[in-house]
Amino acid sequence: MPFTESIHMVNRKVQTLDEFTIQQMRDFPHATGELASLLRDIGLASKRVNVEVNKAGLVDILGDAGTVNVQGEDVKKLDIYANNQLMGVLKHGISCAGIGSEELDDFIAFDDPVSNNSKYVCLFDPLDGSGNIDVNVSIGTIFSIFRRVTPLGTPVTKEDFLQPGINQVAAGYVVYGSSTMLVYGTRRGVNGFTLDQAIGEFTLSNPNITCPDHGRIYSVNHGFFYQYDERVQQYITACQKKDATNGGPYTQRYIGSMVADLHRNLIKGGIFMYPGTKDKPNGKLRLLYECNPFAFIIEVAGGKATNGVERILDIQPTHLHQRSPLFAGSRGMMEELETFLNK
Ligand code: AHG
Ligand code: MN
Ligand code: MN
Q1: Residue 282: which domain range?
Q2: CB-ligand 1 contact for 326 (6 Å cutoff)
Q3: Exposed/middle/buried for residue 332 (C-beta within 10 Å: 0-12, 13-18, 19+)
Q4: CA-CA distance, 140 to 266, in Å (whole number)?
Q5: Whose CA is nearest to atom 12 of ligand 1?
Q6: CB-CB contact of 75 with 59 (8 Å)
Q7: How many domains does the chain divide into?
Q8: Buried b / exposed e across 100-119, counting CB within 10 Å, b at 16+?
Q9: How many whole angstroms separate alpha carbon 273 and alpha carbon 305?
Q10: Looking at the whole model, is its pTM more than 0.70?
């Protein structure tokens, strides 16, 4: 077979995460490639986490962990492992000046000559839905990327991390599910990449994701129903009363890993709620590591995200670990929710 013929037979329909981000960058003449390299670093860390997640059930029968246990030390929890992987790749990469993480008390300024000259900071929830690890249910990683506001060449400060979500340059998540997928969004769109385990590459599988304007799924923890504000209770009740005459019937789905719940609702259309409760008026989810990145992705995909009073992306954070109620999903369903919340 002539050489040129064999070259055309290679399957070039597949585009890897790297190829995609580099191609996107070429549309911007002044782009430095730092964002592409940051996304590659996050992809690398998540592939390592994926390997560990896949053998989570084996942890007690694998030699290594067993030996550690015999010596009386704790097996490292998977969320600490995930945190360390992300911290490691971002510190050694060339694009990130510092990080904030759900697993760290305070932000970390990497503070070395390369990092101080990097223009991005990254915030993440290294392992979301960690309560689901032991029962083999989908979990995830969530990340949020900001351009620093302090001058290049200096160590980053808290100011770089306490920015409203609207300033995000990119945000994304990895879902470790029936397949492993990385989804990220920039202002230009949201794209999904499935991990091809055979070659260890994230490959473009869901180009240009948009969130349907209407869906039939609502996701909320019903156990706290009587803890929610009356208007939220009324909306949930209205969801349950939907039938064919008013856009229903709705179905309720709640996994307990927001990555999995929101990923499904993003693709199929739906609404996700983690409202405040009587005991915890700000709910459970963290603004910087969970609400902001999803609000950004959902909005870019055409949906809406609020805390019940204002747009999530407009909130000026005051501290790193602050919590916020979250309502996010299909535009039409969010607008219907708002008619209840504005009562
Ligand atoms: P994390 O594992 O990072 O602490 O987050 C779990 C979160 C979120 O993913 C999920 O939607 C929510 O907790 C579930 O909480 P409830 O069990 O209170 O409904
Ligand atoms: Mn979480
Ligand atoms: Mn977590």
Answers
A1: 217-341
A2: no
A3: middle
A4: 15
A5: 256
A6: yes
A7: 2
A8: bbbbeeebbbbeeeebbebb
A9: 10
A10: yes
Nearest alpha carbon, ligand 1 atom 6: 129
Task: State the SS3 of 146-158.
Answer: EECCCCCCCCCCH
Least distant ligand from the CA of 293:
2
* Full pLDDT tens readout for the chain, 343 residues: 565 555 555 556 789 999 999 998 888 878 889 999 999 999 999 999 999 988 877 765 444 444 443 434 444 688 899 999 999 999 999 999 999 999 999 999 999 999 999 999 999 999 999 888 888 899 999 999 999 999 999 999 999 999 999 999 999 999 999 999 999 999 999 999 999 999 999 999 999 999 999 999 999 999 999 999 999 999 999 999 999 999 889 999 999 999 999 999 999 999 999 999 999 999 999 999 999 999 999 999 999 999 999 999 999 999 999 999 999 999 999 999 999 999 8
212 in a domain, yes or no? no
Residues 88 and 125 reside in one and the same domain? yes
125 Cβ closer than 6 Å to some ligand 1 atom? yes
What lies within 8 Å, CB to CB, of 48 at 6+ separation is 85
Is 253 contained in some domain? yes
Residue 130 CA: which ligand 1 atom is closest? Answer: 2
Q: Which of 153, 173, 206 is the last residue of a domain?
A: 206
